[in-house]
Fold this protein.
Amino acid sequence: MLKPLIYLFFLNVIFACGRDDGNNPVYQEESPTPLNLESVKAAYSNLSLQDRQLNQFLNEINLIPAINQISNKNSAPIIAVLDSGFQLESSAYADRIWQTPDNIDSRCDGSTIGCNTSTYNNGDFHFGNSQISADTAYRCEKKDKACFHGTAVASLALGFNQDDGILGVCPVCRLLPVQITNSQGEISDQAIIGAFKFLSNLKSQGVPVKVVNASFGKFQFSRDVSLALKKLPHVDTMLIVAAAGNENTDQRAYPSSLSNVIAVASTDYSTGQKSNFSNYGPWVGLSAPSGLFDSLRLTASPLFLDGTSFAAPLVAGAAGLILSQDPTMNVDSLKGSLFSSADGNRLYTQNPSYLINMGGQRQALLGKGILNVGFALSGNTGSAVPEQPKRISQGCGSIGLANGQGVVVFIMLLAPLAIMRSKS
């Protein structure tokens, strides 16, 4: 059993505090250059002729019908990815990285592209700096696992490059990269708090960040991180999606099991069965597939994108795709759309032992069902299982740790439990 202090890249009760009062400044920027949607749709529709594996993977979440539904509404939702380093020049999203406009004070020292919050300490004016691992993010070698993880997660959520065969869930979304690891690959509670303070500050200036992906976690509950997610202004207006974890246990992982976070379990995309490593429990919100074999062309050597780290961004990308068609949708409606459209029948037909009877009521341990992007986008109702029992929720209080109290925790990227496997 791993020590509970280790953060891993897993590969709503409403209180008065932290609520959005709705009085945000008007955020103005030039409209993003729209993609040629006919070309985008053709790339996904013709996938069965070019990459049968990726086609099967995307069909597992009913993505291709969803792509065919989208229309050009001049909306490019921002998905914040909290992760390791990023290959910022990746063809998957290089031209769709959100950059801070001149009229926005990001409070990230010297940065116009995302933020590195790994050095944040409680009380710092700046939440981080511009050094998104220059040694890896800007010159990211594909064998660099620390950089590869963030790049792969972002690419699954929103990557798109037809020439390179990169087809993520939301090709019209933009990336806001937030690095939470330090140069040793470590992460602290304060780095996570700094990341959400960075996002909260952007939201306070009207920047429409509505989706956050967090493919990491640990077993020990952090009151400070919990309070940050509950008390910081505007964070309650963001849909936070997190990996459930890769230890094949029903022990709660954090932050995924917090009440305002959607925990995502992993299934095998070829069988629909729970991945043998995936965590489970009544705190899981949805399941999504992982196990894609190098179809994103992100690595020099063949690798499997196995782990709940790579299931979570599918849900984050689906949320972004929904917002691209209805940018005014609030977080509760967005979550409701994802939940009500999920395919519970298909998930629990393949995993009957994870739908148990307790006190005469069904308790689902893999969430509402398999993510169904096509149904979520069209507003169709799936076969989602009933509401889960109430999960641990946060209270109100002071955010942050006194200097010296932050527990630095180590990240294990993709191996063995985050599971990145070389092809045998």
User: Anything to note?
Assistant: DSSP finds eleven helices and 18 strands in the chain. Confidence is low (pLDDT under 50) at residues 12-23, 134-139, 389-424.
